[in-house]
Amino acid sequence: MVATSAVAPRTGNVSAGTSIFAMVVLERPLEGIHTELDVVTTPAGAAVAMVHCNNGASELGAWAGVFGRFADALGASADADAVYEVLFREALGGDPDAGGLLAYNFLSGEPLVGLDEGRPLVIRTPDSSLTLANFMRAQLYSVFGALSLGMRVLRAQGVQLDRMMAHGGLFRTAGVAQRFLAGALDAPVAVARTAAEGGAWGIAVLASYLAVAESTDLDGYLRGTVFAGAEIDTVDPDAGDVAGFSTFLTRYETGLPVERTAADAL
Fold first, then answer.
1. How does pLDDT run across 69-115, given as a tens digit for each residue?
2. DSSP conformation class of 193
3. Contact at 8 Å (CB) between 10 and 165?
4. Distance between CA atoms of 103 and 170, rounded to whole angstroms?
5. Residues 255, 260, 261, 264: what is their CA dihedral angle, to the nearest 10 degrees?
6. Residue of 218, 253, 259, 245 lying closest to 2 (CA atoms)
7. Rounded to an integer, what distance in angstroms lies between the CA atom of residue 177 and that of residue 195?
8. Domains and CATH numbers, the chain
9. Which residues form the signal peptide (predicted)?
10. What global pTM score does this model have?
11. pLDDT tens profile 45-72
12. Whole-angstrom Cα distance, residue 260 to residue 14?
């Protein structure tokens, strides 16, 4: 929260790495009990709803490794950053709903969707459009799949977001995962120049705040000092991406019994 300056109500952050989670600062308490959510607080004590998923970008990384090795075999060696750049840019040319493809990134169990074990899967129907662009879009969408189901609970509670800050290695390729996340959340997503920094940097920032804590609140310190003049790129949700991801998510939720059967059979 501190590392992304997301400590005020109607702000939040998404951290995408081996796992993925979203934290949204609430304006008012949630109603009822929601097993998809954890309730924590900002360092200043404001209530935060947290959606945590065990599975993030690891399966995506495995596929990037496959394509990187394919490049090596062709004699066109590329470093990992270049492979991700090409694959992510390719995803931008995919169909909004990933062409009917479905992917699950579950290397481990995912309690949010009721899975004790995970089996990474790529599934398609005969009339789907299997292209590299759609394949990569499906893989990127899958990173946000379970998270989006949890965020749907917050939307049903009337929780509003002015901006979601994103950080983690997934967002190093500018404008791709950020755009798809904006479509998945139907909310603006911002990425700062410090997006690759994480908890350790945030703790250091929080420690520096202690020197001025008596004269300013944490949100004011972050916005007025730490992030004043920071390079922040904000992407608004694209209507086509919102509709396409919604179609993908319906397919994703409908297909979950296939994931459960795969875990039972293999």
1. 999 999 998 999 999 999 999 999 999 999 999 999 999 999 999 99
2. T
3. no
4. 17
5. 170
6. 218
7. 13
8. 1-266 (3.30.420.40)
9. none
10. 0.93
11. 999 999 999 999 999 999 999 999 999 9
12. 27
